[in-house]
């Protein structure tokens, strides 16, 4: 554990409780994984600089430790928070770039001998286990999460699509009426019985309500003057306006029909 003794010696004057010694060990483990301390608190300050030493004021609050770190290659920044709860240290690490969060809980008494804070050779217990837990609980998960994020972002890179694929206003191609299939289903199908009753308006089938305007046959011209004794003047019904005719749909030619006033004896076969 090269470097831990020197680090502890530099911080020993300010170490007054077991949790201070535990934070010192966590700091050393981050340093061995190419992290450097920048400062304390959530926000960066003008005096931030990378250092292997603990920053000034790192243990001003014995219940909450807040430290900021940055990797030696400037690719990652960590925000480390450690809270003491009932003799356990809950450590939370946030990778600022990817917003990945990892947590680790350590029982202080399992790794720090509070009666020998001034003696480096007796202050720590289970050193190998503590080192493994910090590496596997904090450092490695952050690196793995960053690797997954990079691979996921690279897998989402697709070749550029044409404007046709991205055009939300594209109108589908028009098919002639003769090429379309009828909207109703096969009347001989096993589930066709009663379909008109269940769907009278013909959403999926033919329906049972007769609509002469949607019968599919050529539509007769609508004469607005149908049912009136005289024809409406030109322009009385603007083109395209909605208008309910006075009589049945169809043409109403002027004058009487051919059979309106038959001549006398029209049914005499000898005439």
TrEMBL record:
Against Gene3D superfamilies, the record matches this protein to: 3.40.1000.30
- List where Pro residues composition bias occurs: 255-265
Q: Name one GO molecular function term.
A: proteasome binding
Q: Name one GO cellular component term.
A: proteasome complex
**Keywords, sorted A to Z:** Acetylation, Cytoplasm, Endoplasmic reticulum, Methylation, Phosphoprotein, Proteasome
Q: Where in the cell is it found?
A: Cytoplasm; Endoplasmic reticulum
Start and end residues of each PI31 proteasome regulator C-terminal domain: 177-248
What is its biological role?
Plays an important role in control of proteasome function. Inhibits the hydrolysis of protein and peptide substrates by the 20S proteasome. Also inhibits the activation of the proteasome by the proteasome regulatory proteins PA700 and PA28.
UniProt record similarity statement:
Belongs to the proteasome inhibitor PI31 family.
Q: What is this protein called?
A: Proteasome inhibitor PI31 subunit
What is the gene name? PSMF1
């Amino acid at each position: 554990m090269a470097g831990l003794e020197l680090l502890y010696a530099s911080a020993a004057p300010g170490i007054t409780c077991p949790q201070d010694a535990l934070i010192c060990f966590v700091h050393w483990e981050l340093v061995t994984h190419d992290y450097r301390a920048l400062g304390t608190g959530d926000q960066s300050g003008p005096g931030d600089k990378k250092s292997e030493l603990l920053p000034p004021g790192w243990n001003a609050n014995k219940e909450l430790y807040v430290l900021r770190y940055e990797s030696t290659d400037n690719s990652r920044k960590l925000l480390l928070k450690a809270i003491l709860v009932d003799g356990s240290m809950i450590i939370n690490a946030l990778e600022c770039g990817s917003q990945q969060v990892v947590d680790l809980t350590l029982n202080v008494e399992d790794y720090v001998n509070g009666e020998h804070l001034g003696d480096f050779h007796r202050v720590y217990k289970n050193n190998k286990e503590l080192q493994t837990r910090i590496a596997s609980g904090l450092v490695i998960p952050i690196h793995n999460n960053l690797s997954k994020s990079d691979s996921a972002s690279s897998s989402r890179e697709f070749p550029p699509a044409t404007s046709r694929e991205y055009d939300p206003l594209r109108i589908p191609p028009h098919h002639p009426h003769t090429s379309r299939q009828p909207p109703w289903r096969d009347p001989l199908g096993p589930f066709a019985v009663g379909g008109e009753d269940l769907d009278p308006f013909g959403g999926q089938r033919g329906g049972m309500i007769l609509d002469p305007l949607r019968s599919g046959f050529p539509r007769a011209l609508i004469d607005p003057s149908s049912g009136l004794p005289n024809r409406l003047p030109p322009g009385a019904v603007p083109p395209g306006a909605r208008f309910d005719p006075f009589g049945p749909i169809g043409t109403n030619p002027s004058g009487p029909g051919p059979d309106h006033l038959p001549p006398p004896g029209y049914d005499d076969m000898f005439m």
